[in-house]
Design a protein that fits this description.
Elements lengths: L16 H8 L1 H8 L2 H7 L5 H25 L16 H11 L4 H4 L4 H13 L3 H16 L1 H13 L17 H14 L4 H29 L1
Length: 222
Amino acid sequence: MTAVTPPAAATPTDQPLSLRLREGTRPEHEAAESSGFVEKLMGGELGIAAYADLAAQQWAIYGALEQASAAIRQDDQGATLVFDELTRTPEIEKDLTFLVGADWAERVTIHPATQRYVARLHEVGGSLPAYAAHAYTRYLGDLSGGQIIKRMMERHYGLSVDGLAFYTFTEIPRSKPFKDVYRERLDALRLTPEQLAGTVAEAKLAFRLNSDLFADLGAAHC
């Protein structure tokens, strides 16, 4: 009888990019989610000012990310990851107008960790592997855990439509099908093994930058 050789176990390079990103960033993702600032904000222990401060940091980050989106759109592959429905900067500005006032741009503070995050986006955002990492980290997070944050802000701080435009994707009524399409687009990117590894490394860095941001916010509000 001829021995049957079992199929080889999948190696990381055999895995689709979306899975590599999810599994490869798990420790950094969990560390960011368990920060003291996030836990206290979600638990209703802080105030509207803390949430407004978070929104101000998001405004700076998404401004840089969406500048990168405009640039990467010129790349045939990169264009597949850019969706107008995901654009957040105008929505964050609506939130800040409600939360802080019409003069919010003169009143908010951009923290040092946010400045480092923005600098990194400006540095690497034109690279498709790096852009994919940062867009995956931010946008799929907004459509997933971000929706839990939205519910907690409604429950604990009395926010409704006003103040929560950032987490309200009016053009994406069903998030799961959209996220499935986004992951398919990630998996279809034609990247070398080195670029794939670089994408995962950049996503891990994005989560660490986010953790640093939460640390700054915690120092200011906790």
